[in-house]
């Protein structure tokens, strides 16, 4: 493998394609934020409520139960704030509390049919447009894209080393 010039942080200089891809990821992230923000008004929710509903949709598809503590951790809010948030979602008819399927001392938060219908009503056209873009790719491209996005998503939430515990090393 050919050595690439190093940048000021000691990393190899990024290829133009890498920089272009990182920029595209930023644009995608911004577009997703703007798309999700369109739910706040019509559904009369704040950003944390929308983020919690999005989390519930994703975890439901993955078959993972969600506790109020999971919501607190995911949104980086206190458990008391998560309880208030869940209360709002339940009061609005978008979520319900149920006994945990494996731990009867705990409760899980689930989407309601109203929440699913509201998501479909507000996101249906956007999801159809996204599906058109996706359908234009062949199966091999989609497999690679899905692998890439999954690895990228994992890298975004993976624990990082604590920069305060190990000082930077000098290059020899």
UniProtKB/TrEMBL annotation:
Domain (HTH marR-type) ranges: 15-154
Pfam families (alphabetical): MarR_2 (PF12802)
UniProt-listed SUPFAM superfamilies: Winged helix' DNA-binding domain (SSF46785)
InterPro entries: HTH_MarR-typ (IPR000835), MarR/SlyA-like (IPR039422), WH-like_DNA-bd_sf (IPR036388), WH_DNA-bd_sf (IPR036390)
Superkingdom in the source lineage: Bacteria
Protein name: MarR family transcriptional regulator
Organism annotation: Nesterenkonia aethiopica
């Amino acid at each position: 493998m050919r050595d690439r010039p190093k940048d000021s942080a000691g990393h190899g200089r990024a290829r133009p394609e890498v920089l272009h891809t990182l920029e595209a990821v930023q644009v995608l992230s911004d577009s997703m934020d703007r798309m999700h923000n369109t739910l706040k008004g019509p559904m009369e929710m704040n950003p944390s409520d929308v983020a919690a509903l999005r989390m519930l949709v994703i975890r439901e598809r993955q078959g993972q139960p969600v506790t109020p503590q999971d919501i607190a951790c995911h949104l980086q809010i206190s458990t008391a704030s998560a309880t208030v948030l869940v209360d709002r979602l339940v009061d609005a008819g978008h979520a319900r509390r149920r006994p945990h399927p494996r731990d009867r001392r705990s409760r899980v938060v689930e989407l309601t049919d109203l929440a699913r219908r509201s998501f479909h009503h507000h996101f249906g056209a956007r999801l159809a447009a996204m599906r058109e873009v996706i359908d234009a790719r062949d199966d091999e491209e989609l497999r690679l894209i899905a692998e890439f996005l999954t690895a990228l998503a994992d890298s975004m939430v993976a624990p990082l080393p604590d920069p305060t515990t190990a000082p930077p090393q000098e290059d020899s």
